[in-house]
Amino acid sequence: MNDFWQHCSALLERELTPQQYVTWIKPLAPVAFDASANTLSIAAPNRFKLDWVKSQFSGRISDLAREFWNTPIEVQFVLDPKAGMRSAPAGAAAAAQR
């Protein structure tokens, strides 16, 4: 799941403007993958980001998931206020705690 998210994030970072990537994709975090049900859950830190990402990027993320796993994947978006913190690099999280 984390390998996919790194792959997906890297591709989206190349496809989007830096502002779009930082605003919409970087705050997301993968939270669950169920291989038996072919579902991937991705968390957004607030309802606004969740709704926007779902409407604007769910198709692209689903396509990338299908290509990565070689099977159709249902991408579900969930609300988790801590999502942005999980996707931050370790150094940034440590700096934020100081």
Number of strands: 3
First-residue to last-residue Cα separation: 30 Å
Q: What is the overall number of helices?
A: 5
CATH class: Alpha Beta
Radius of gyration: 13 Å
Strand fraction band?
Answer: 15-25%
Task: Kindly report the name of the CATH homologous superfamily.
Answer: DnaA, N-terminal domain
Round the mean pLDDT to the nearest integer and report it. 87
Using the alpha-carbon principal axes, give the shape. globular
Note down, in words, how this protein is organized.
Pfam families: DnaA_N. InterPro entries: DnaA_N_dom, DnaA_N_sf. This is Chromosomal replication initiator protein DnaA. By secondary structure, the protein is an alpha+beta fold. It has one domain: GMP Synthetase, Chain A, domain 3. It has 5 helices and 3 strands; from the N terminus they run ααββαβαα. It has a 3-stranded mixed β-sheet. The C terminus is likely disordered.
Secondary-structure map:
Blueprint: H1 2-15, H2 18-25, E1 29-34, E2 39-44, H3 47-69, E3 74-79, H4 83-87, H5 90-97
Pfam families: DnaA_N
InterPro entries: DnaA_N_dom, DnaA_N_sf
Protein name: Chromosomal replication initiator protein DnaA
List the keywords:
GMP Synthetase, Chain A, domain 3; DnaA_N_dom; Chromosomal replication initiator protein DnaA; DnaA_N_sf
